[in-house]
Design goal:
This protein has a domain at 49-196: Protein Transport Mog1p, Chain A (3-Layer(aba) Sandwich), CATH 3.40.1000. The strands form two sheets. It has a seven-stranded antiparallel beta sheet with strand order 3-4-5-9-8-7-6, sandwiched between helices. Strands 1-2-10 form a three-stranded antiparallel beta sheet. The longest helix has 23 residues, at 5-27. With 213 residues, the chain is of the alpha+beta class. A hairpin with a 4-residue loop joins strand 1 (47-51) and strand 2 (56-61). The protein is built from three helices and ten strands, in the order αβββββαββββαβ.
């Protein structure tokens, strides 16, 4: 069978094209897509005043719940500011200052520094609200740490309030960062609206045991 040069050239081009296409199909490499996270729709920022028998008051988000800390050793004015939708809690503990402010300050720094093992950074934000006699420090902790935000507030003579944000999940800052930033704004709002009750003293509860008569 005789094939002229023009026909041979067309057949050769077709064969080469088929071979190249086949190689491309066999050698095609599929790269995995980066892990994605669910989009979170945050509620509008709205606040309400929280005022109780405790010697402090502040504004909290309307989408958060505040409950008394029921753990053993917790005092009457230790509270949990809970964010159920995000499985997050800001643990609040209150102490009366009685010539022991240095101890409370040292403890607060130690609690924050414990997270530096896994932290990639720790920024400190100074709180100075002279008109309300509210002073303190905010610890902004970066990285896969159990607590991303901690703070303390005091008037240096009578009141000391400490807070720490924790999530009920394994720390993963890649997925939690947007939630941390959202709740951090609420924490800063709480700090900026905190005030002490003049002349108030901490409340204590006594548990009375029933006796059989």
């Amino acid at each position: 069978m005789i094939i002229n040069s023009k026909t041979f050239f067309c057949v050769l081009i077709f064969a080469l094209g088929f071979t190249i296409t086949g190689c491309d199909e066999e050698d095609e490499v599929f790269s995995p897509k980066p892990r994605g996270y669910f989009r979170i729709n945050f509620p509008e920022k709205k606040y309400r005043m929280y005022d109780s028998i405790c010697p402090y008051k502040f504004e909290i988000p309307v989408y958060a719940e505040i409950k008394q800390d029921k753990h053993n050793g917790a005092d009457a004015c230790w509270l949990n500011l809970e964010f159920p939708k995000y499985q997050a809690t800001v643990h609040l503990s209150y102490k009366e200052v009685n010539n022991n402010i240095a101890t409370y300050l040292e403890d607060s720094h130690n609690f924050a520094n414990r997270h530096q093992v896994k932290a990639t950074g720790l920024d400190e934000i100074t709180v100075m609200r002279d008109s309300a006699k509210v002073y303190g420090l905010v610890f902004d902790i970066e990285g896969n740490t159990a607590s991303s935000v901690q703070f303390y507030l005091t008037d240096s003579t009578q009141h000391f309030l400490r807070g720490a944000l924790y999530f009920n999940s394994i720390p993963n800052i890649d997925s939690l960062r947007i939630v941390v930033d959202f709740i951090k704004k609420d924490i800063l709002h709480l700090i900026n609206t905190t005030s002490w009750k003049t002349g108030s003293v901490p409340v204590t509860f006594e548990t009375k045991k029933k006796t059989n008569s």
